[in-house]
Amino acid sequence: MPCPFPPPPTASLSRKLPCCPQQLSTKLRELLETTCRLANTLKRHGVCRGDRVAIYMPASPLSVAAMLACARIGAVHSVVFAGFSAVSLTGRINDAKCKVVITVNQALRGGRVLELKRIVDEAVKHCPSVQHVMVAHRTDRKVYMGDLDIPLEQAMAKEEPVCAPESMGSEDILFLLYTSGSTGKPKGLVHTQAGYLLYAALTHRLVFDYRPGDIFGCVADIGWITGHSYVVYGPLCNGATSVLFESTPVYPDPGRYWETVQRLKITQFYGAPTAVRLLLKYGDSWVKQHDRSSLRTLGSVGEPINQEAWEWLYNVVGDRRCTVVDTWWQTETGGICISPRPSEEGAEIIPAMAMRPFFGIVPVLMDEQVSPLLVPCPAHCTFPASAAPSLGNVVEGGDVSGALCLSQAWPGMARTIFGDHQRFLDAYFKAYPGYYFTGDGAYRTPEGYYQITGRMDDVINISGHRVGTAEIEDALVSVAPQPGSWALRCGVVIERPAGVSSLLSRPPVHRLTTLRCRRRPSSATPTTSREKVGVPHERTPYASHTFALLPAAFAFIVLKEDAVDADAVMNELRSAVATKIAKYAVPDHILVVKRLPKTRSGKVMRRLLRKIITDKAQDLGDTTTLEDPSVVTEILSAYHKYKDKQAAGP
Fold first, then answer.
1. Stated pTM of the model
2. What positions does the domain AMP-dependent synthetase/ligase occupy (predicted)?
C-alpha cells in the first residue's frame, strides 16, 4: 500500500541502548536495505506468502526490519514480547503454526541479561511446525547453534539489498498479535493490510499532531499493539523518526525517560500510566534536571490514567504547556479510538478523560445485561413489570453510564481470531448483537465526552448503582497525603459468587438472598481510577421484580511508606471513597500488599487477585506473562493472614 504521507529524506529509527550515553540511528534507506536482505533470507529458507513467522526479539532496528521483511514478502509476522517464558512462546508458535522463528542470542533489559536463544531452544522442542530458527546477535556472547539454527547476519550478508514487494489484497493478513493474557487465554488477533496501515497512520498523525521533522517517542515494546501501531507502522508510514526504547523507566535511574527526551529532542512522548505512577513516587527532581522544552504532546496508553498521574504529567513533565492525550483503544481496535485530540483548535481537555471519538468511531452505551443469580420478586411486590431494566438497548443522552460498544466498523479493527472465528464472534459480538462490545464500561458526560470506567468484569452493581473498579481506585489514590505522611497505589478487583464470571453471564440460580425490593436508582457518575476486585455481597436487589446476591469490592493497596498507622490509613481510604463517590462504593475489604501482580506490559492481572480471594489459588492458569511470578506468593501470604485475622474476630 502506498504511503499516504511521503516520508522526508531525514526520517529514521533511533534506538535507545541501555547505557545512557549510547544510541544507534538508522536511516530509512538503511532500514529498507536491511529489510530487503532479511526478506530474501526468509524466501531462501522456504518462507512464502501466507506463512507465519514468529519474532522473539528486543526493540531494535533489526526487529523492525524483521516485521517489515515479513510484510514485504506477504508472510504473516507474530511478534512475541521478548520477556515471555518458553511455555508462553511455545503456545503462540503452535497456535499460529509458525514456520520460522527469528530471535537474538541475548537481550539486555534494565541491567539484566535475558537468554532469549536458550528460551527459544526450549520452546521449539515442542513446536513441530518450526523449520528454522534465525539467530541474530545483540551481544558478543556465543550461543549453541543446532540443526535448525541459522546465523542471521551471515545469511543476510549473502543476499541482495533489493526485494520486490509482494502484491497483496487489502484484506490479506498483515500480522497476528496475541493478547497479553491478563484476562485469560491469549487470543491471536488478525490485522489486515490496507485498513490497519491507514488507521495507524491517520491516528498517529492527527492524535499526536505529528509534523514533518518531529521525533516521536513511544516507549512501548514492539511485542504489544502499541509498539506495532505507534513505534513501527504509524510513524514509518508518516515518514517520522521513531524512537525504539529498549530499557526500563528506572534504569539506570528514574530520570531515564527525560534524559532521552533531552538528548533526542523528542517532541511527542507516549507511555503507560503504570510507568507514570512508578516515576511519580521518585519525585519531581529526576524530571526537572533534564531539558524537556522539545516536548509538545504527552500521551498515555494501556489503561485509564488517574487524576494524580495526569496532573503530574501536565504540570511537572509538560510544564503546563504540553497537550496531554489520554488515549483509549485496544489490541482489537488496531489504533486509537477515543482521545482528546484531534479536535477544534483550542478545544478543552478534561484531565484523565479520553473524551472524543476518532473519525469513523461511533461509540454507544448499552444497558447492562441482567445481573446474575436472580429470583422473582415476591407476590406482595406492587412494582409493574415495565419497571424492570431493559437489556441490550442503547442508552441515549448525557450523564449516563453503560457498556461501551462501537456501532459501525472502522479500518483498523481486527478481523478475526486466528483459527477460531467463532471465539471472535462470541467474545466481541454476542453480548450485544449488531455491536462490537469492547468489554469496557464508560460514562458519557452531559457534553457528550466519554470516560472509561474500567472492564465490565470489574464492575459491581450495589443498591442499583453501577460502580467501576476504576472510579473506586481513583478515589483511593487521590487521597491527598499530609506532608511527610503516606500515599499509595492500589488495585481493586471483584469477588463474585461462585459460577459468575462477569456481569454478562447468566449461570443457573444456586445462591439466593431475600432482600427488600426497591427500584433501581440512576447510575452514579463515575470518575477514573485503577485496580480492584470484588467478593459476594448481600445488599439491595439489582432491580425491581428481581433479587440478587451481588458481588462486593476487595481493594489491594500498596503504601509508599511502611511507617504508617494501618487503621488510620483504612479509615481515611474509606472516607475518601464515601466522599468522592458514595458510601455504597466503599470497599468491603482493604488489604495492604507490597506489590501488585503485573504483566510485563504493566497491566495488573486482576484475574490472579480474584483467584486468590475466591480460594482458587491452586488454579491460577498461565502466569508466565507476570513480570515477577513471586508476587503471587507474597499476596497469598498477606491474604491468608488477613483471613485468619477476620476469622478470629475483633
1. 0.77
2. 29-368
